[in-house]
Structure formats: structure tokens, C-alpha cells
């Protein structure tokens, strides 16, 4: 018996004890019908070969370890960014349990969302009654200022019409006629969570700007000096949105953050549970139509929302998750051009500090090869930053990236001598990435938590940037946007590089001649 | 100091009843009427807890429940390690359930073992319009080519599959034939079926019956020689290694575990189970169906056991031993005696820090009752409990063996009810899931995830109890809970109830 009360062993150590090791070996030998170890070894080696890679890339139907989630997750992410708003997902309740868990696991925060709990009878007769009862219950229990409705694949397959359902529910008195119930159809079999973000945000703006589903006159635009800012689906929303607000304030720009969920995913522990916290006020959401311009930080998160906004008369500009010096420069210059406000002195200093840090450290990054995966905009932003550091973003893979994204990536690679042997892989998954890492190895991998399996199998050190990050805490509190965000990303990359150097030089009397204390 | 320790049972009952009345007031009338059936106060001597269960959740309330897919893929089938489980339908369900339950296993992942991987047919619009059967057939071919050492495949249906009328059974049969009788199991666990994940467990059990047991050839050569002491562990998902810290006890008492269901399980173990002399069942809710089936069809008796905390472990070891001869009965006593010093040491260390502390639970499966004994071993008291997806027989077991007079019972609790119950009762600890964790921590209430053990574990068995005790102590006695209120603020903790 290895367990003891004074030094409690948990799973990390407990099962390494001889009695457990013996037990597991017996289990395997006698009862598991294990594969021949030689055969396991042969297939393991084969799966590293160019031949396997070819077969792997020839896959047409199977997806293995995708780096994307489904639309409604993005819709829930948007909805909680509005003041007092409860997301309401029309469909099977299990989906909502999944979205809430997924968001909670990343942010280490509560995630509130309700479902219309559709079951077999709704599959046959449609979910109208679920909508009628559901809206009434949500309204009475949780007293939201707004209920933002989206769908699951179930509701979409049976063809439930949200516009008609919500109208009927209002007629039946579920919620008052003038109560705000914006909606978006977000089928899980189209696009990804990024598409859901786009659809839901457009749905909410459409509601406020285009006459609240026929219950109010359409708004008429009267231009003011404000700038609308849209962050897009972003695992760093807490740190990033706050950083962007700081930048706006430094420059004296009046702004509206559309879907500001930075507070609801970062509530204090002080004895009170806040189901709603912060968020874009409904008034601001409506008044956003009068803004001078709208800036989207992620092009692929706003492919429908931006044209919708543009059609309502003001300038729009999209970025691709800007990280680093040039991308932030471009963001700030666009801000300055649109608003006529000069770029703040303090930001100029921050820029200089980031350049300083990069000059101090880029020798350790220069020429290193990286693989990156994640959402299309994030991949672009990180790849651009790596090029700026003299690194080679060799494999850039996005399960929810499309051909147009790949072309844009290739153009980015072509713009830099460091992009020479770099390639973009749209629509591929992490099992494809595994083949890439075996056949064309790189020095580092950047991606979300799921990359740890690739790190284990291929030995490529993982730098965790993306969504979700479940197995490291609090990264979402630090921005990756702006010069200060660039600094955070730089430090994250450098820390991993130095950790690896130390790991490779820590054998006493053998490799530790380079175990330096100054780097 | 919790309220429960300062009041008489009669006072507690009155308070709990009043509390139920208060939460019901917020609902529309129809909803209040329906929810009222799920909330009650346990009366000692009653055969159940006085609540209705396994009924549809109400639209628009924040239910904690999942779906049939979660019950089948996420719980029962997912941990079978040498089979590939296809999440058939859109990408989300597979993504959200990917490696989330910590079903530990040993194997070379991606080569002969596949638990922490996400295989999906990633349905697109055209698959909805034209059907996904052809794609599924192709997926199976691609799996065979890229993962040749898999021992079998299951198809876990997501919502659209049933709605668009795909014939996954036909595809399974054709492909099984094409690959020399390979085990390919279609599972109709679409998320809209039933009222919770519970139906998914049942559907998954039925799929084992129909597509594994019914296909075993009676002439098949046994993989091993039987002994009179062969048992199978049923309903342990090896979360944080639970099934291992359980298995070791059964083996130490002289039994031979020929199969684990389904944590760290393999297809060969599923197939071997009908040779067991006794099925020992931990999670009654998720796997009573297949245990009953094996009893009827193969004449294998089954017995429930509870490996949380030394009192229940000893009771269970003796109960399991009672199915066998003196050698095993002596073995059970030997095991109990062997671990007694460890248990004494654990309790001596932790009980003084936990004595008198109160707990409220809300979990799935067996835990809302099974862990009560472990808390009592530490001198703690469970003052409220309820099941995510329990049935009437779960509440009967709870009433007859576990809860005390006056315990607050809440079936399929809504977020709203749970928050208000906790706020009013002020337990020293809440045990529930990830969706509840941060809500209660914000309120300053210590919390442990009792689905995933908060990434700790194992909690089962004697080795697991040491970890359980340590974890409850670290949750309740963490210095951080003294700091939730800023020192310059001495207003009482705000109560949402009072504010309304």
C-alpha cells in the first residue's frame, strides 16, 4: 500500500506504485486482447511517415480532432455581452449544458444560458410550445433586460421559424410585446462558433436598428463621433476588451463596444453571484447605428455583420486579430484617421517599449519554425507577428478557415522572406497537423489546450494561445492586442523557448556547460 | 456556523418547506405547479424522498441536465478505449465532450487506443439535405485505413441523424460484413430523446446487448480459463482512476476482475463479461439495465456496491464476499483490516477540521446518495441533495439507506432554486458540477466538483478516500474564504432573496 495520510498521493503518483503497475499489466495481458506490441510499434512509426501523411491528407469524410466548435457557442458568447441579457437556445437542452461547461472551463467563470428543452414531441410537432413556455419562464425567473435567442441543429433540421415563434409567444403573453427578444438562426452544421458569433451579433443589431421585429419604427442614422468596436470570438476577451478600452480612452475616442462580455466573464468573488455584469447597454446597442465607423477586430467573425452595418451608412474596417507592432500600428492609424484624433503619446511610448523588447529578444526567436492552429483571424495575427520577429510560421492550420483565408495567408507569407516555406491549411484538423509535425518538424507549436496531445506525440513544445485553454489558468486575463498585448505574447513565446533550452542543458556534467543563468 | 447545526429537525423541516414555497413564487403558475413536484423535505421512514423524477425539464429554466448523446458517448461508450467512437452529426457535441470526463486508461493513443480523441462526421448542410449514410460508410473506410489497430467502431448519433432518417444500422451491417465481421455498433442516442442523459445510458446498454452480446458466438473459444472468482466491475468510469482503486481491493480479497465497464474498458472485456460469476455494480443508474439483462439471459447475479468512504467500503466488501465462499469472505476481512490503519490515520487527520460541517449536493448518477457515507465518515452532514437525472428507484435507495430526516430534496434543480437554497441554508460546502462551481464560489461558498473530482482523484476505494478527505479539507478550510469580504466592509453578506 503506497497511500498514506500524511502525504496523500493522488492520481499523479498513486498508480505508479508497484501494486497498481502489476495490476494493470495483468489486466492488459489477460483480459484486454491487446495488440501485439511489435505491431503497435510498427503502426506508431508508420503514422509518422510521408506515406501516412499522404493517406491522411486524402481523407474526404472523416474529421479527427477538429479545432472548431459549433455556431450556437458563438451566439451565447455574443449574447452575454449585452447588459442584463440571457442567452436562450432553442433546441435540445444537452447542447446548452455543453456550451456552459465549455465556457466555464476556459474562463473559470459561471456561464448562464437557458434552453427551450426540446424533446421527441417537439421533434415531431415543432418547438413552438417550448418557445412560449420557455420565454415566459426565463422572463419571470431571471428577470433579464433582454433574451437573445439562437438555435441548435435540432431546431434547424425541423425548420422552426424563430421570427414567427417569438411573435406568437409575445401574442400569447410570454413576454411583453415591446420586450427585446432578438434572434439568430445558428445551425450547427454550417460554419463554426465564429459563424455563430457573426449571426448572433447581426441578429441583435438588426433587432435594434431595423424596427425591433416590427414593434418600433426603424432607426434613422444621425452621425455622431463615436466608434463601434467588435472584438469577435476571442478567448482573451477579458484582457483584450479592457486593453482596447484603455487605448480608446488614451486617445480620447468615444466608443461603443458591441458585445462587451469582458465583465461577465470576470466577476469578483465577494459574496455575491452576478448573473449579469457589465455589457453593452441596450441603448448603446441601438445608438450604435449613429456611429461614425465600426471596427471589427476579426474579419472572419463579422463577415455578415460588417456588410449589414455598412448598409446602414457608416464606414467599416476589419482586422485579422492584430498582434504585434505593425498590426497594432495599422489598427491605431485607422482609428486616428477615422476619428481625426492623434495617436496618444503614451501609446507611442508603449510601441517603443515593444520594439525595444523585440530587439532585445528576437535573436532567440529568429529563424525558429512554428506551427500555428486556431480560428482564422487568430492564425493570421499570430503568423504576422512571428514574421515580424524573424520566425517562420511554417504550418498554419485552421479547421474553420476557408480557401479565401488560405489565399490571404499565402499573400502574407509572400510578403516576407521568412514566409518562404510557409503554408496555410484551410479546413484541416489536428490529425493532419500531427502528420505535418512528423514529416516537416518545427521548433514550436502554438494553439489551444488540445495541442498538448500533439506535444506529447511529436515532441513539439506547445505554446498555449487560443480557445479553449482549459489546462492553464488565467491567460484570458492578459491582452494579446495592442502593444502591451504584443508584449504578453512575446513573453509567452520566449518563456517556452528558454524553458526548452534549460530542459536540454540540465544534465550535470554532460550538457550543463550551456546551463546559463544569463540569456 | 451553519444554520443546520443550531436548529432542531422540526425547525429545519419548517424552514426547508418555507424555502420551497418561496422559490416557487417566482415561477408562472403552470411552472410552479410542475416544479413543486420535484422539491420536498425528506420524512424519515418514508419509502422515497417524496419527489417526482425523470420527467421533462421545463423550457426556459436553467436545468443542469444534459442529453441522451451525453449519456451514451460521454458516459457509457466513450471510455471503451480500443474502439473508435464516431460523433455522428455536426462538430459541436463531439468537441464539447472531448476528453472532458477524465476517463483514465493505459494505451497508445491514436494507435491502439482512442479515448482522448474526437472523431466526427462534421455534418455540413449537404449532409442534412442528402443524408449522411454514404459519408458514414466512407468514414468507416477511412478509419480502417488510418487506424488499423482499432478493435471496433461505434456510431454515436447526434440530433439530426434521427430527424433526417439516416439508416446507420444498415451502414453498420454492410461495413461489418465487409470487414470480416468487425464490431460496428450503431447507437441511436440523439440528444432530443428522453428527458436527460439517463435515456442515453439505457440506449447505450441496449446497444451493448444487441450489437455485442447477441453477436458472440456460443462456440467462440474462451480467451481465458474461467475461475469461480471471476467478477466484472460495472458502472465505474475510472474518473481520475476510480476503477483502479476499486479493482485493487476486489483482487486483494481474492476475486478476479475479468472486465471493467466502461472506464479503461476494452471490447474484449465487454465480450467476456457474460462469463462473470457476479457483476458488481457501482453506478446503478447508468448500468442497471445491462446488469439485469445479464441476470436474465446468462443467469449472472449482480450486486450494488458503494466504494466511497471506509464505512460503505467495508459494508460493500462484505456484501460482495457474501456471494462467494469462506476464502473470499476471509479475504474481505483481511482487506478491511489491512486498510484500517490508513483509514484511522486519514480520519484522525481530517475529521477534526471537518466535524459538523454541512454539505449540499447536486450531481448525477449514484453520487447524490453514495458520497453521503464518506462525508459522514468525516463527521460531516449532508443537508440537501438531489439528482440531475435520477429515477424513482434512485430516490427510494436514497431515502432508505442514506438521507436523514428533514433533508432538503431537489430533483432536476434549476439554477435559480439551487442558488436560493444555498443562499438560505448556507452550507459549508457545495458539491456539484462545473456549471455550478463558480456560481457558488462567487457567493463565497466552498465548492468541489463531484462529477470530475475537480481534476483530482481517485475518490473510490481506500486509496481514494484519503484523497477525498484531503480535497474536502482543502476546499472548506482554504484561507481564501476568509477574504471574500473586503476588511473595510462589514455589512452582512448580501442576500438576493432579501433584495427581491
Would you mind describing this structure in some detail?
The complex is a heterodimer of chains A (about 525) and B (about 500). Chain A has about 525 residues and is an alpha/beta fold. Chain A contains 21 helices and 14 strands. In chain A, helix 5 (about 70-80) packs across helix 11, helix 16 (about 345-360) runs parallel beside helix 21 (about 480-505) and helix 17 packs parallel to helix 18. The longest helix of chain A is centred in the C-terminal third of the chain and has 23 residues, at about 480-505. The radius of gyration of chain A is 25 Å and the shape is globular. The two termini of chain A are about 45 Å apart. Chain B is an alpha/beta fold and about 500 residues long. Chain B is built from 20 helices and 14 strands. The two termini of chain B are about 25 Å apart. In chain B, helix 1 packs antiparallel against helix 17, helix 3 (about 70-75) crosses helix 9 and helix 9 runs parallel beside helix 12 (about 285-300). The longest helix of chain B is centred in the last third of the chain and has 29 residues, at about 325-355. Helix content of chain B is about 45%, strand content about 10%. Chain B is globular and about 70 Å long. The chains are: A alpha/beta (about 525), B alpha/beta (about 500). Chains A and B meet through helix 2, helix 3, helix 4, strand 1 and helix 6 of A and helix 3, helix 4, strand 3, helix 5 and helix 6 of B.
Amino acid at each position: 500500500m503506497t497511500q498514506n495520510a500524511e502525504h496523500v498521493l493522488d492520481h499523479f503518483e498513486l498508480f505508479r506504485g508497484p501494486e497498481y503497475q502489476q495490476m494493470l499489466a495483468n489486466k492488459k495481458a489477460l483480459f484486454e486482447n491487446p495488440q501485439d506490441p511489435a505491431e503497435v510499434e510498427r503502426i506508431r512509426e508508420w503514422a509518422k511517415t510521408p506515406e501516412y501523411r499522404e493517406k491522411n491528407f486524402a481523407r474526404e469524410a472523416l474529421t479527427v480532432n477538429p479545432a472548431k466548435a459549433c455556431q450556437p457557442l458563438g451566439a451565447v458568447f455574443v449574447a452575454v455581452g449585452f447588459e442584463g441579457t440571457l442567452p436562450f437556445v432553442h433546441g435540445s437542452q444537452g447542447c446548452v449544458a455543453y456550451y456552459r461547461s465549455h465556457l466555464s472551463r476556459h474562463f473559470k467563470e459561471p456561464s448562464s444560458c437557458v434552453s427551450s428543452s426540446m424533446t421527441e414531441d417537439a421533434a415531431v410537432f415543432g418547438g413552438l410550445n417550448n418557445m412560449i413556455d420557455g420565454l415566459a419562464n426565463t422572463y419571470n425567473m431571471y428577470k433579464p433586460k433582454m433574451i437573445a435567442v439562437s438555435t441548435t441543429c435540432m431546431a434547424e433540421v425541423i425548420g422552426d421559424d424563430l421570427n414567427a415563434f417569438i411573435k406568437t409567444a409575445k401574442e400569447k403573453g410570454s413576454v411583453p410585446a415591446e420586450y427585446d427578444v432578438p434572434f439568430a438562426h445558428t445551425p450547427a452544421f454550417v460554419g463554426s462558433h465564429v459563424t455563430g458569433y457573426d449571426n448572433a451579433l447581426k441578429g441583435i443589431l438588426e433587432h435594434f436598428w431595423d424596427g425591433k421585429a416590427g414593434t418600433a419604427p426603424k432607426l434613422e442614422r444621425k452621425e455622431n463621433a463615436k466608434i463601434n468596436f467588435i472584438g469577435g470570438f476571442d478567448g482573451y476577451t477579458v484582457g483584450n476588451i479592457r486593453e482596447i478600452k484603455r487605448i480608446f480612452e488614451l486617445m480620447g475616442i468615444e466608443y461603443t463596444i458591441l458585445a462587451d462580455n469582458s465583465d461577465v466573464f470576470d466577476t469578483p468573488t465577494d459574496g455575491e453571484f452576478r448573473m449579469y455584469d457589465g455589457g453593452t447597454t441596450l441603448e448603446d446597442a441601438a445608438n450604435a447605428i449613429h456611429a461614425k465607423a465600426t471596427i471589427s477586430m476579426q474579419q472572419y467573425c463579422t463577415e455578415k455583420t460588417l456588410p449589414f452595418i455598412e448598409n446602414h451608412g457608416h464606414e467599416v474596417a476589419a482586422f485579422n486579430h492584430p498582434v504585434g507592432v505593425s498590426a497594432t500600428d495599422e489598427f491605431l492609424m485607422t482609428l486616428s484617421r477615422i476619428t481625426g484624433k492623434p495617436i496618444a503619446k503614451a501609446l507611442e511610448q508603449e510601441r517603443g517599449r515593444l520594439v525595444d523588447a523585440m530587439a532585445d529578444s528576437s535573436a532567440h526567436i529568429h529563424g525558429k519554425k512554428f506551427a500555428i492552429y486556431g480560428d482564422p483571424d487568430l492564425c493570421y495575427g499570430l503568423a504576422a507577428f512571428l514574421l515580424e520577429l524573424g520566425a517562420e510560421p511554417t504550418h498554419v492550420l485552421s479547421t474553420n478557415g476557408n480557401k479565401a483565408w488560405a489565399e490571404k495567408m499565402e499573400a502574407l507569407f509572400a510578403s516576407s522572406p521568412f514566409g518562404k516555406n510557409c503554408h496555410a491549411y484551410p479546413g484541416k484538423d489536428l490529425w493532419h497537423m500531427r502528420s505535418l509535425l512528423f514529416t516537416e518538424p518545427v521548433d514550436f507549436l502554438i494553439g489551444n489546450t488540445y495541442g498538448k496531445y500533439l506535444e506529447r506525440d511529436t515532441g513539439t513544445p506547445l505554446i498555449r494561445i487560443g480557445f479553449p485553454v482549459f489546462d492553464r489558468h488565467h491567460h484570458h486575463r492578459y491582452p494579446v492586442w495592442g502593444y502591451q498585448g504584443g508584449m504578453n505574447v512575446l513573453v509567452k513565446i520566449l518563456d517556452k523557448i528558454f524553458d526548452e533550452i534549460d530542459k536540454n542543458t540540465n544534465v550535470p556534467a554532460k550538457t550543463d556547460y550551456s546551463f546559463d543563468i544569463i540569456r | 456556523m451553519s444554520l443546520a447545526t443550531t436548529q432542531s429537525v422540526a425547525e429545519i423541516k419548517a424552514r426547508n418547506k418555507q424555502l420551497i414555497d418561496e422559490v416557487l413564487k417566482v415561477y408562472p403558475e403552470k411552472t410552479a405547479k410542475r416544479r413543486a413536484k420535484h422539491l420536498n423535505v425528506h420524512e424519515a421512514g418514508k419509502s422515497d424522498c417524496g419527489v417526482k423524477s425523470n420527467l421533462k425539464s421545463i423550457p426556459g429554466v436553467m436545468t443542469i441536465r444534459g442529453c441522451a448523446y451525453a449519456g451514451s458517448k460521454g458516459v457509457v461508450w466513450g471510455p471503451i478505449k480500443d474502439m473508435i467512437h464516431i460523433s455522428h452529426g455536426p462538430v459541436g457535441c463531439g468537441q464539447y465532450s472531448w476528453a472532458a470526463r477524465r476517463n483514465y486508461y493505459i494505451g497508445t493513443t491514436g494507435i491502439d487506443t482512442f479515448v482522448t480523441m474526437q472523431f466526427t462526421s462534421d455534418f455540413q448542410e449537404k449532409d442534412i439535405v442528402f443524408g449522411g449514410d454514404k459519408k458514414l460508410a466512407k468514414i468507416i473506410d477511412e478509419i480502417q485505413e488510418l487506424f488499423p489497430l482499432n478493435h471496433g467502431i461505434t456510431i454515436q448519433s447526434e440530433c439530426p441523424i434521427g430527424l433526417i432518417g439516416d439508416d446507420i444500422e444498415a451502414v453498420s451491417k454492410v461495413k461489418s460484413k465487409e470487414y470480416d465481421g468487425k464490431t460496428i455498433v450503431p447507437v441511436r442516442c440523439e440528444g432530443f430523446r428522453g428527458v436527460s442523459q439517463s435515456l442515453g445510458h439505457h440506449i447505450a446498454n441496449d446497444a451493448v446487448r444487441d450489437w455485442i452480446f447477441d453477436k458472440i458466438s456460443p462456440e467462440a473459444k474462451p480467451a481465458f480459463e474461467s475461475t469461480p472468482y471471476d467478477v466484472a466491475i460495472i458502472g465505474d468510469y475510472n474518473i481520475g482512476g476510480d476503477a483502479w482503486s476499486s479493482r485493487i481491493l476486489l483482487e486483494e480479497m481474492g476475486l478476479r476482475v475479468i472486465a471493467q465497464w466502461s472506464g479503461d474498458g476494452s471490447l474484449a472485456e465487454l465480450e467476456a463479461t457474460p462469463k462473470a460469476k457476479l457483476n458488481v455494480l457501482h453506478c446503478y443508474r447508468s448500468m442497471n439495465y445491462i446488469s439485469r439483462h445479464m441476470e436474465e439471459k446468462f443467469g449472472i447475479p449482480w450486486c450494488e456496491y458503494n466504494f466511497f468512504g471506509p464505512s460503505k467500503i467495508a459494508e460493500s466488501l462484505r456484501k460482495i464476499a457474501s456471494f462467494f465462499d469462506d476464502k473470499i469472505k476471509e479475504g474481505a476481512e483481511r482487506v478491511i483490516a489491512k486498510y484500517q490503519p490508513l483509514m484511522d490515520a486519514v480520519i484522525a487527520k481530517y475529521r477534526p477540521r471537518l466535524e459538523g460541517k454541512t454539505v449540499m449536493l447536486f450531481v448525477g448518477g449514484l453520487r447524490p446518495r453514495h458520497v453521503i457515507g464518506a462525508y459522514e465518515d468525516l463527521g460531516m452532514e449532508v443537508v440537501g441533495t438531489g439528482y440531475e437525472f435520477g429515477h424513482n428507484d434512485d430516490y427510494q435507495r436514497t431515502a432508505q439507506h442514506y438521507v436523514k430526516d428533514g433533508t432538503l430534496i431537489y430533483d432536476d434543480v434549476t439554477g435559480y432554486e439551487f442558488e436560493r437554497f444555498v443562499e438560505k441554508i448556507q452550507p459549508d460546502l457545495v458539491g456539484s458540477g462545473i456549471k455550478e462551481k463558480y456560481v457558488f464560489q462567487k457567493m463565497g461558498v466552498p465548492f468541489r466538483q463531484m462529477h470530475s473530482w475537480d481534476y483530482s482523484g481517485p475518490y473510490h476505494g481506500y486509496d481514494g478516500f484519503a484523497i477525498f478527505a484531503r480535497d474536502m479539507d482543502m476546499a472548506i478550510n482554504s484561507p481564501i474564504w476568509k477574504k471574500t469580504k473586503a476588511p473595510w466592509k462589514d455589512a452582512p453578506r448580501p442576500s438576493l432573496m432579501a433584495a427581491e
